[in-house]
Amino acid sequence: MHRTIELPARFFRSSLYCALIVAILAPAKVKAQESYLNPRLPAAQRVELLLKQMTLEEKIGQMCQYVGEVTKNAAGNKDEEVNYVVGIGERAQLIKAGRIGSFLKVPTYKEANFLQKLAEESRLKIPLLIANDAIHGHGMYEGAVTIFPSEIAMAASFDTQLAYDVAESTAREMRATGNHWTFSPNIDVVRDPRWGRFGETFGEDPYLVSRMGQAMIAGYQGKDFSGPDQVLACAKHFIAGGVAINGLNGAPADVSERTLYEIFFPPFQDAIKAGVYSIMPAHNEINGIPCHAHRQYLTGLMRQQWGFGGIYVSDWMDIERLCTVHNVAATEKDAARIAVLAGLDVHMHGPKFFDHIKAAVEEGMISSARIDDAARKILYAKFQLGLFENRYVEEARIQRTLLRKEHLATALDGARKSMVLLKNQNALLPLGRNIHSIFVTGPSADNQAMLGDWSRIQPAENVTTVLAGLKSAAAPGVRIDYLVCPGYRDLDEYALRKAQALAGAADVSVVVVGENSLRNNLQKTSGENLDRATLEVAGGQAALLQAVKSSGKPVIVVLINGGPIASEWMAKNCEAIIEAWEPGMFGGQAVADVIFGNYNPGGRLPVTIPRTVGHLQAFYNHKPSITHRGKFYQSESTPLFEFGFGLSYTQFRYDNLKLASHIGHQDDLTLSVAVENTGPQAGEEVVLVYLHQQVGSVTTPVKKLVAFERVELKAGEKREIKFTIPNGRFKIYDQDMKFVLEPGRFDIIIGNGLLQSTLTID
Ligand code: BGC
């Protein structure tokens, strides 16, 4: 599954490639001006043939990305963006003049075809790359599509095959609608859950983030994105936006070089190894340098050291912000020059970039080789994706692709796999035959908040809300009472009294609370550009929970949220808690399956849940000294729920951890452990393997995740699970920041301390 693509960068750099180009161009058997249109030639050769015919303007045009239909509505845009809006007439002229290379946010296939038609009328007929934020399904498309669980939910499944399948299906739906480039995966490691974009990420652990990110890249791009159902992936946002000051989107990040190398860089390094073809820098500055101007990281580190050969695309307005926000450029023209010299290839959104770059080249500030370099990578993607031959899409393909049976099956399977059962007092769940009436309430019980960010509202019949899921799965005769609770922000006394009364009249209550990150809705509580000052459930939801609880009947809390919810009151007082995250279009069905026992939950937390916002930062892989002196006044320092935690309706027993007591300095470690389902029913367990270095020349974490596998076991079944830990996982950055393996003793820890063994590396 985890196939890697051959990096074009290596190909471009090799002398073999240059020799090949010379040999091909010399005899000129095919007319030079036509040969790049010859589909039989390899993509890299076609690129060179085309580049030879392009003017400077056409090459810079490839670097310019414009927005689709949203630009029509200048009034709806924020002030800072009004100047960047270009009407469709002007855009049409620019496309025909070869001065636009790509688009983002093209809402329909008709518009995609329309834009491609204009591009075909340009001198060189270069097709457009069309990009979209299709991060857990093609949710920004204007039409009904498959909405999968969001990234944080996928991370909770600890199932890389799920991430692969979601990406593969998303790519298929994108290509069917004329889209070729997704701004996903988001491989930000998050250490500040106040960040409203938490749900877009795979959580706090760099290894889990890497594995899920690599799986998605493989699902999107396939071997080399040359297939008709593949798209370019984009690893974002480089770097450390998940630890920006106060969790505010785009605020400065001040992070030590050591933490960058240990925690934040590895997922990007691994994404490059997986062949990701584009990378997006972050809005924020890192240690005083805005990411969009970071030449040392973008070019020195990622291109030259790590071998990244794809496209850097700027984030929305971030080149301009070098001047308008960060003040590292006096003018927007300077900003454009600084960004391109730092390594940026594609400018997202806006018409002025073209003139700035053209002037900078003419003034000798940017070399034409730098422009060729950017255009070459963009054109390579277009040839490789097959766009010169096939730029249009037809309705018939859309009909047979969107919401395809296999996609829907993946969406349901993913929703089930990502559920984490956090509490189940007295085995309240699954509900038994003694339950005859259920009271359902909470602002997320019957709406589409469960779709998460980067999704438009879907047709109601395509989304199973929790209320709908419960109604359809409840046994005949079970009464379901529902109280509409519209407000995430406020709840009046009347609603609270009514909730209490209805809860009292039922056997059990299901209260669906959490966050709402659904795009473009007025009840939003988190998401892009909306961060959290508290990790408690927002607004009146805590009061609602308390009112329901005061009825004296048991309470099942269903959490719908991207970022973790930290509520000590809820954890102590409510009988059951299901962390459902943003489970996508079948979320309600998956929740009902867990509540009625049609599915045995097996998800695990991909994030540490602290007791309160005041306990931040809270992550499991901390250094040993964290609480050796300091304590919190009147509060414990342990988390509310640990990373990796999650209950099941069955029990698992671990034994027989087998590993060598010594390995050599360059050896990988193989180990195995037996896991047995000792309970009464089938279930899924996530086997987690952690590493701890006993003594090092620098401090090392109390433990770090080095392997995991989700396994399905029937009742009574026992299985030996094998792992190989690559030698590199034992390495650390020493005092000189050299990445070395320091011989010594290492603990291998299974689960959250279930079994442990020590090994010596000579
Ligand atoms: C976000 C990116 C996104 C881009 C395009 C930005 O505001 O930070 O993640 O890809 O918008 O929609």
Q: What's the end-to-end separation, in Å?
A: 34 Å
Strand arrangement within the widest β-sheet reads 11-16-15-14-12-13
* Radius of gyration from CA coordinates: 27 Å
CATH homology group of the domain at 411-627: Glycoside hydrolase family 3 C-terminal domain
Description:
- The chain has 762 residues and is an alpha/beta fold.
- Among the domains are: 411-627, Rossmann fold, CATH 3.40.50.1700; 652-761, Immunoglobulin-like (Sandwich).
- The protein contains 25 helices and 26 strands.
- The strands form 7 sheets. Strands 11-16-15-14-12-13 form a 6-stranded mixed β-sheet, with helices on both faces.
- Helix 10 (160-176) packs parallel to helix 11 and helix 20 (405-418) crosses helix 25.
- The longest helix has 17 residues, at 160-176.
- It is globular, with a radius of gyration of 27 Å.
- The two termini are 34 Å apart.
- Mean pLDDT is 93; it is low at 1-30 and 73-79.
- It binds beta-D-glucopyranose (BGC).
- The site of beta-D-glucopyranose has 6 residues, from loops.
What are the key terms here?
25 helices; 762 residues; 5-stranded parallel β-sheet; alpha/beta; Immunoglobulin-like; 26 strands; 31% helix; binds beta-D-glucopyranose; disordered N terminus
Structure at a glance:
This protein is α/β, with parallel strands linked by helices and 762 residues long. 31% of the residues lie in helices and 17% in strands.
Question: How do the helices and strands line up, and which of them pair or pack?
Answer:
Elements: H1 8-13, H2 15-25, H3 32-35, H4 43-53, H5 56-62, E1 64-67, H6 79-82, H7 88-96, E2 102-104, H8 109-120, E3 129-132, H9 151-157, H10 160-176, E4 181-182, H11 206-221, E5 234-238, H12 257-264, H13 266-273, E6 278-281, E7 285-286, E8 289-290, H14 295-305, E9 311-312, H15 321-324, H16 332-342, E10 347-348, H17 352-362, H18 368-384, H19 395-401, H20 405-418, E11 420-424, E12 437-441, H21 466-473, E13 479-482, H22 493-504, E14 508-514, H23 541-549, E15 555-560, H24 568-573, E16 576-579, H25 587-596, E17 652-659, E18 662-663, E19 669-677, E20 683-693, E21 704-713, E22 718-725, E23 732-733, E24 739-740, E25 744-750, E26 755-761
Parallel strand pairs: 1-2, 1-10, 2-3, 3-4, 5-6, 6-9, 12-13, 12-14, 14-15, 15-16, 18-26
Antiparallel strand pairs: 7-8, 11-16, 17-19, 19-22, 20-21, 20-25, 23-24, 25-26
Helix pairs in contact: 4-18, 5-18, 7-8, 9-20, 10-11, 10-20, 11-13, 16-17, 20-25, 21-25, 22-23
The protein binds beta-D-glucopyranose.
Residues 104, 133, 183, 236, 315-316 line the site of beta-D-glucopyranose.
